[in-house]
Amino acid sequence: MKLNKLYIAAFLVLVGTGCKKDYLNVNTNPNSLPTATPAFVFANALNTSATNMLSPNEVGMFWGGQWTQSNGYIISTTLFSYSFTNGDFNYWDNTYDNLNDYQYVINNATAAGQPYLKGPAKVMQALGYQKLVDLYGNIPFSEALKGVDKLAPKFDDQKTVYEGLITLLDGAIADLKANTFASAYTSSDIIFKGNTTSWIKFANSLKLRILMRQTKVSGRGAYITAEVNKIAAEGSGILSGADVGVNPGYVASAGQINPFYDSYGYSETNARRANNNWPRGTEFLINTLKSTGDTVRLKRIFYAAGNENSANPGVSTKEEVAANYAGVPFGASAGYLPAATCAPGPSVLVRGTFNKPYILMTAAEAQLNLAEAKQLYGSAINFTGTAQSYFEEGVKESYRILGASASDATRLLASGVENVDFAASTNKVQAIGYQKWLSFANFTGLEAWSEYRKSNYPATPQSRNYVTDARRPLRLYYPGTEDGSNGANVKAQGTIDPLSTKIFWDVD
Q1: How many CA atoms lie within 13 A of 39 on its CB side?
Q2: Could you tell me which residues come within 8 angstroms of residue 248 by beta carbon, excluding any fewer than 6 positions away?
Q3: What is the pLDDT of residues 7-58, one digit of tens each?
Q4: Domain range spanning residue 395?
Q5: pTM check: above 0.90
Q6: 428-439 and 363-377 helices cross at what angle (nearest 10)?
Q7: SS3 letters across 223-251
Q8: Residue where one domain finishes, among candidates 421, 439, 457
Q9: Of the candidates 329, 319, 318, which has an alpha carbon nearest to the alpha carbon of residue 287?
Q10: Rounded distance, CA 340 to CA 350, Å?
Q11: What span, in angstroms and rounded, lies between the C-alpha atoms of 47 and 45?
């Protein structure tokens, strides 16, 4: 792990002024470490958390079977033939740097008269650590973030880390209940604007994600049900009607627009980015949506072939009917031109909408995780709804974030189609898994890949660029930077094969 260092750069702002755009508009001397209040550091850390998720979500969208590429680009060896090394996909360093920022907030918030920041900082730490476990397995946790006091932290067992995250989130909730945001500092919270209840719902939803990720691990049922019931007993509930999105006040200036929009859409001057032709919808996802009659979500997850109409932002160049939607077989290297295939759609990319929040977690996922808990454990779960009611609410939430109506969702839910209509589905857990996987599209790709690894569902096709055997990536290598600075503890993890070494919750 890299040395403990505080990244405050480019973000200091007079909190409480109401001028959100200032968050992205202040430069600092990179050769000196400025002194900053926890509120300053917290706001910057939230913005960094969003930016840091862009690349892992991209990889997750690809390996989760939702995105592939057009032949406008040379085939990616690392993504589609799975030929990568410990020099590829290093999400370790920037995540630990980000965790250090939150630790600075936790360590200094009370003394600075800002104790209300401790709870949210702990929630964000739990999110960062969960990402690291799901990507790498065993990680530094109990000895992490101690700076020069522990330059070579040991690696903790990944299941133990997951349990530690539940404890961390319990502590976060206690801090949130004990310390209401001071009104003058709510602008430092660029997610919920100081809404304590929303932070607690986020914490509960993250706990639910962590718990439900472990359902196939032998002997975990009693632990999972007990912890889910603690969420029910806490009483604040889970995400509903709103998602977790970071927005520091994105403005039409270089480096200050939504990072997803900046990477795959347009510049601050509305010039089309080169990467706009890079991601395409997979043939599997698009054809699945067609086969279930789910054209409402289809035309919001993807643009029709030909992409966005430049004269009418958010509208495809072709009529939005199923016949005009074409995907690409995953890993195909030729024969699929950008103009003839579908790009990420108006739910995330519309020319001129540079200021949308960057989504960290959706309410759809939270509701569908609760549906899975009720379906697997039944009356042992103390939430009052049924698996079907949470399933249907999750689908409606998926429609909402895509800009579609609840009435459209209601019609689909009564369609009699497998994996769409809960009552008609023969395998309820599979139906929940499908809807969960679908809800991640374009938003939280890392979760799509993680859920696929956990459940092996849906059965997405193997890459056409990988013909050796049926194996797929199950994790990442520990990065070379960590091997260089903490080599003994890296080597203690044994031989890592990303195509066969599983994360602990990946059982079958």
Answers
A1: 22
A2: 11, 20, 23, 24, 43, 46, 47, 190
A3: 333 333 333 333 344 556 544 444 444 568 999 999 999 999 999 999 999 9
A4: 363-439
A5: yes
A6: 170
A7: HHHHHHHHHHHHCCCCCCCCCEEECCCCC
A8: 439
A9: 329
A10: 19
A11: 5
